[in-house]
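Write out this protein's structure.
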Amino acid sequence: MSQPVPESNNPADVRMRGFVQRSTVDEVLAWLDGVLAPLARELVPIVTAGGRVLAEDVMAGCDVPGFERSMMDGYAVVAEHTLGAAPYQRIRFSVVDQSLPGRPAKRSIDRGSVIRIMTGAPLPAGADAVLPAELTEADGDDIWVQGEVSPGKNVGQVGEDIGQGCVILSAPRRLRPQDIGVLSSVGIAEVPAYRQPNVRIVVTGDELLPAGTTPSGYQITDANGPMLQALCARDGGLPVNPGIVPDQPEAIRAAMNEDVDVVLVSGGSSVGQEDHAPLLLARDGELRFHGIAMRPSSPAGMGRLGSRLVFLLPGNPVSCLCAYDFFAGRAIRALGGRDPDWPYRSVHRTLRRKLVSAVGRVDYARVRLIDDQVEPLAISGASILSSTSRADGFVIIPADSEGYAAGSLVETWLYQP
C-alpha cells in the first residue's frame, strides 16, 4: 500500500504550516472556465427529458396541425353562402353531417347545407369557414343563420402552430415542461441532450455521525453531505454519496478515484494534521489551487485526477456552501450544458448598515431583506450553517473593496428562486 509523501519533502503539504500565499478568485475562475466543456451527448426519451439541456437544435418533421381544423364549436360553411345573413334577414340551411375531433364528416358541403363541427375537428370538404353556434338558431334538422363570416374565419390552417422543417427548439436549451409538450406534438420520442455529470461526494471526518443521526457527545452530525447532494441535484448533477469516509489516506484515495466526472471532498482540505486530501491530489493528479483569497472558504482547493475534476471544500458548512457556489457548482452546471453562472436572481437594494471587508480578498456576506433593505447577518462564522437559512441571500464584496457604507446600493443574490 502506497503512503503519502512525507511532509518535509512535499511543498504541497501545508499541514500544520498554513498557506504561504493564496490564489485570487479571478485566477481560479479563469483556470476553471478554461478546462470546462459540456460532456458528451446522449439520446434521452422525452418523457424523462424535463430539465435536461439540448445538445442539438430540434426540427419539426411534420406540420402542426396537419389539417385544417375548427377553432370553435359551430357549423362548417361556405363563407360566400352566408353573405347578407343578419338577425332580421335569416338564411335557412340543412345540417347534413357532423365533424368531431378524430372523426371527420363523411359528406361535403354544397349550396344550402352546413355541417355541425366541434373545436379541433377537421374542416369538411367544400367548407372554408366556421360559423359560431351563437350566430345560429336550431329548427329541427335545419338551422337559421343570423350572421355572416369571411373565408378562413375560425379555421386553423395547416402548419399554423408548427411548420414542417422549422427549428422548434434551439440548443443549448434547458427543457421546460411545455417544451416536452411541443416535442411530443411533432412526434419526437427522444432528444439529444448533454450527459449529466456523475458527482462523488466524499465527506470525511472521524468526528461525524451519519446524516439524520442525533448529535452525541463530542461527535456532530454530517450536514455537508445532504447539503451538497441537494446542491448537486439542483445544478443538474447526479450525486453519489454512500456515506462518511474515514480520515484515512487510502480510504480517501479510493473514494477520489471512483469512476465519476466530478469529486467533491468535504473536509480534510485545510492545514490540519488529518487533512489528507490536498496531498493525495497533489501526489496522484494535479493540485492546481490550494488556498484562495476569499472569506469564508480560504482553505478551498481544486485540481484534476485523471479525467475527473476534484474540488476540495472546507468542512465548515458555510465555507463549504460558499466554495461550492463559487467553483464546484459552476463546473457541474457547465459539464451538463447549463449556464455556468449562479442560479440565483439578483436585486439591487440599499444597505441598512455598513459592510466592512479587507482589501485583497473576496467576501461572501450573508444578508436578509428587511423593509426592502439589505441587513447584513454575518461575514464571518464559517461554522454557523444556520446563518444561511436565516439569510435571504448574499452580497459579494470584491477583493479591491473595503466594503460598503450604510445607504449604498448593493447587488444582492437571492437564495429563493
